[in-house]
Every structure is written in structure tokens, then in C-alpha cells.
Amino acid sequence: MHLAYILSTSRAYSLDVIDTIGTGPYDATDKNGRRREEDRFWREKKRQRGVSFPSANKQEYVLIVRLNLKPNARGEIKQVRHGLKRLCGLFGRIDAGEEKINIKDDNGDLTSSKLTNFNFSATLGFGIGFFEKLKIDRNFCPRGLYEMPLHADLGDPEQYLFTQTDMIVQLCSKMDFVNRWVFKTDSYPITPSEEWRNLAGGPKQNAEEKIHDISTAVSEWAIVTDVHSGFQRLDGRNLMGFMDGISQPERLRNDDIWTTGNDEIGALIDGTYMVFQKIEHDLEQWEKLGVREQERWVGRSKGTGLLLGTLSREQDEKLADDCRSNNSMVSQAARSRLKKLLKEQEDPSKPFYSSSDPQYKNIQLECPVWSHVRKSNPRGADGETRKIFRRGYLFMNDTTHPGKRVSSGLLFICFQRDIQNGFEHIKKHYLNNKKFPVPEVRKNFSREELAYRHMHGRFKEDELGRMVPYQRSSLGLDTAYSRKLQEAKDPDLQNTGKEGLGGPSQLGIYPRGDFVATVSQGGGYYFIPPIPNRKISEIGQQFFG
Ligand code: HEM
């Protein structure tokens, strides 16, 4: 079974290696620097948690809850304001350690544990519909927020199943059941309708405190549209078997993720923009590609996570083997070497591919220009580096889809200061752009590329023209010759603008038009506001002036 293979390749690395490659250290020279910075953010209580801190490695589970305002709440600012207060009041009480979860022990006895014991965070985001439906004053709207475009406008091949919603709540913790408990507890009967009717008299403290889950907190003014659960693999790999999250902007720096005075009005500084997209992948087809080809699609070695060309094939395999060695001296030495090499490849703005440094020459040669890493981050090939902070979680569900046993993929989540120049630019102009980064028509191919092309029955017009009849027959081209000739005239079939993992299948050097590696099912764009006056219960209130 394919999955079994991928899982079996994964046990190799201990958590200390993963922690480093997962997020990127705050200060390489000061081991405690990152922790201190994280504590500072936490104490400041300006930025919502669940974005760049805590690290996703310490919050292994996510539950995404998306919501729309109920039709009766449109234009009802007062009701929604109060509803938001109830919702965020719950998050504030959780944060203060006042909310507990019941856990049954081996003897069947119930004990109560604070939700804070599970490294829990609730992150609240708002889609453009929230502002439009409530007719919120433009001055208080996040400037860079707009509706996620339709699939065709982002260059995705299939219609989205999930479209923009008015709100999103991202629940993260180290226990899946904790997220689900906060979403829906159903163990504290209350009568929200009564409270809603009494709203004119102002919020009632005791009634608010009775609310212990999101479902109840929003029941009068919002409906849940969809819920998605995801997990991290403890080895830092994704379900395609590759290490993910190696190259990332430093998560605790303020310049790539959080909004500043250049972006927003004062009340919205220290917020961030979130993209959520559910991306399904076809693991069965992926497995059929074989490891070498998979590596070329991603641009990194499956064993070590290093960019192709960093080490020779043999050295790379040996390093991966040594990391798994039972001899602790060998494995320790190998792991610290790998850690050092991966660290060098952490910085997304480092120009590996255009560098004249001989150390990177092989990367330039062996890591295909159409691979996922080179297409998602061409490292200055278009004059700029677009930085997004990725915080994805994996999903794996059973499915009723005909011919498929599991549906799996990535809950792609990323944060940035500016979606249009971040996620959207990468998706539209890089990953899903057949003509990027190579010119439309390739005149020359390297010897290796030519070999691949020929192996897959792809020939240039002049190559076909030079073929003598016996060559045509030996390649089985007798009847297909004129079709091939026609095909060779199509400029799109001559480029190498394959879309890597991000988009539709390629027209480039592999003629595999039938295999779409990943399919986005859609999602939405959201603004994650800062915490006003250090009070979590006030989140969202800044939009009302
Ligand atoms: C199922 C879909 C996807 C999978 C399985 C996937 C997987 C990966 C893997 C394995 C890497 C290499 C390791 C690393 O540097 O983190 C990577 C890098 C990256 N991915 Fe994706 N990815 C997916 C979709 C996307 C999408 C939709 C975007 C953005 C629109 C994206 C943006 C990036 C970026 C910016 C990098 C870092 C490249 C670099 O700086 O070297 N990925 N991804």
C-alpha cells in the first residue's frame, strides 16, 4: 500500500532536528532568544496566538471552523457586536485559565483540567463579507482585504467546493479533542434565546459566563458553514513523505507577517492576513511517480530534505541512512551535519539559483526550474521575494469518492502582511503560470532534459524532421508521426513550465496531462485583527469605531 511506504520512510528524525527545520530559529546565536521573543509577544498580548506562536510543532492539531453571518444579523451591528463579545469572552476566559475540560480517567472518574494545559489557542479572522454585510465604516476595514477569487482567476483547474466565508476560527492545541470540545461541548444547557431577547438591557455577565463553546456563543447570529480537522506528523513530513516548512521567513520577526503603520490604521496594526485553502492530493498517483521523480517535482531530497544538488545522490542517501543509524555517534554526527545544511537553506530570500557561489552551482543544475520550491519561491528571479509564513496541517479522511479509499491532503494555511503580493501572487503568477519562470518557447534543452523528453515521447519539430523511417518505427511513431509533428508546433508543449505541486498538471517535459498532483478545493481570505487593549474579549470590537 502506498501510504505504508510513505509512513515507513518517516521515522528518521528526532524532534530536536524537526523543531529547527519546522520554524526557523529566531536568533541562531542565542538559543533562548526565540523563547524570550515568544514570551515577549505573549506578554504584550497585541498579536493573536496561533499565527507565528506557539510553533505549530507544539500544537499538533487544528480545527478550522468557518462561519457566515445569519441573514437576520445583516446590518445588525449591535447584535453582532454583542455576539462577538460572547465568543471572544469565551476565548478570554480560556486564556485566563478559567475554562476547564472534563477528562475521564482509567477508573471512570472525571477530572477537570484547564484548557491552557493543552497549549490551546483560538485565532479569529474576518472575511470581507463581515464588513460588507454589517456596512462597517470603510475607515475601520482592513485595507488589504478582499474576497478570495474564483478558481479560474487563481489559475486552478477545478471549481472550488469551499468559497469565501464571513469568519474563520482556527483552533489549535496538542490534543484533538480539546479543539472539538471548544467547538461543541453540549454539556452545559443554557438558553441563549432568552438572553438574546434581553439584549436591549445590555450584556449580562452571568449569562455570558455560562457559554462554554463556540457553537453556543454564535448560535443566534452566525451559522457554521464547514469544519476541517488537521494534524501534524511528529516527524515534520507531509503525507507525500516530504519534509515541509523548511524554507520559511523567521516566524518571530515583525516585518513579513504582521501589519504595520504602513499597512493599516492604528487599531489594526499587529494584525495579519490569513489564507485558508483545502488542497487534496492524489497519493496513489503520487506513489506511481517513484521517489526520483517525486523529488524533482518538489525540488528537495525525500531522505534529507535538502535541495536537489546540495549533495551528490550517494552522499545524500548516506547522510539519510546515517541519521537513522543505531550507532548513536554516527547518527548524532549525521544529524548535526544535516541540521547545519538545512539551516543554510532556511532563508527564503537567499538566491540559491542565481548565486555564482560554486557551492550552489549543482543546485542550479539539478533542482528543476519547474519544481515546487523553485516555482513557489524563485528567489529573486522576478526581482522580488514574496514571503508568506506557512502553517499547514495535514488531513486524511475516508471518502465515498468512487475509486478512492482515502481523501488526503493539506489544510494550507499561510499568514502575511499582504495577500495580493503574497499568496495570490505566488499562486497566480508563479505556481499556476505555465510560462513561469521559463520563456514560452524553449529553444534549447539540457542533455538531461532531452533524455527525459525523448523517454516520454516528446520531440522538437526539427528532431522529428531529422528522423529516418526506421527510427520512427522503432519509436512506434509510424501512425502517430503527423500528430506528433503537429504537437511539436504547439509552443506550450515545448516549454518546461510545469506547475510543481501547486497547480494543474504540466505541459512541459513530461507528457502527463492526465495526472493532477494536487487539487485545491478552495477556502478564503481573512483579516486576523490584533488584540485591543490586551483584552482577548475585545477582539473584533475595533471594527466598530
Ligand atoms: C498540497 C499542496 C502542497 C504541498 C504538498 C506542498 C509541499 C511543499 C514542500 C514539501 C516544500 C519544500 C519544503 C519547504 O521548504 O518547506 C514546499 C515549499 C514551499 N511551498 Fe508548498 N506545498 C503545497 C502547496 C503550496 C501552495 C499552494 C503554496 C503557495 C501558494 C506553496 C508555497 C510554498 C513555498 C513558498 C515554499 C518554500 C519554497 C522555498 O522558499 O524554497 N505551497 N511546499
How is this structure best summarized?
The protein is α+β, with helices and mostly antiparallel strands. It has helices at residues 2-8, 15-23, 33-44, 77-95, 128-133, 176-183, 192-197, 205-209, 214-218, 283-289, 291-298, 313-323, 328-344, 361-366, 372-376, 423-431, 447-455, 461-466, 469-474, 481-489; strands at 61-69, 100-104, 110-114, 121-126, 167-173, 222-231, 272-281, 389-390, 393-398, 406-416, 518-528. Strands 7, 8, 9, 10 and 11 form a five-stranded antiparallel sheet that branches.
What's the layout of helices and strands?
Blueprint: H1 2-8, H2 15-23, H3 33-44, E1 61-69, H4 77-95, E2 100-104, E3 110-114, E4 121-126, H5 128-133, E5 167-173, H6 176-183, H7 192-197, H8 205-209, H9 214-218, E6 222-231, E7 272-281, H10 283-289, H11 291-298, H12 313-323, H13 328-344, H14 361-366, H15 372-376, E8 389-390, E9 393-398, E10 406-416, H16 423-431, H17 447-455, H18 461-466, H19 469-474, H20 481-489, E11 518-528
Antiparallel strand pairs: 1-5, 1-6, 2-3, 4-5, 7-10, 7-11, 8-10, 9-10
Helix pairs in contact: 12-13
The structure holds protoporphyrin IX containing FE.
Residues 238, 240, 242-247, 279, 281, 298, 300, 348, 372-373, 376-377, 388, 409-410, 412, 423, 426-427, 431, 501-502, 518 line the site of protoporphyrin IX containing FE.
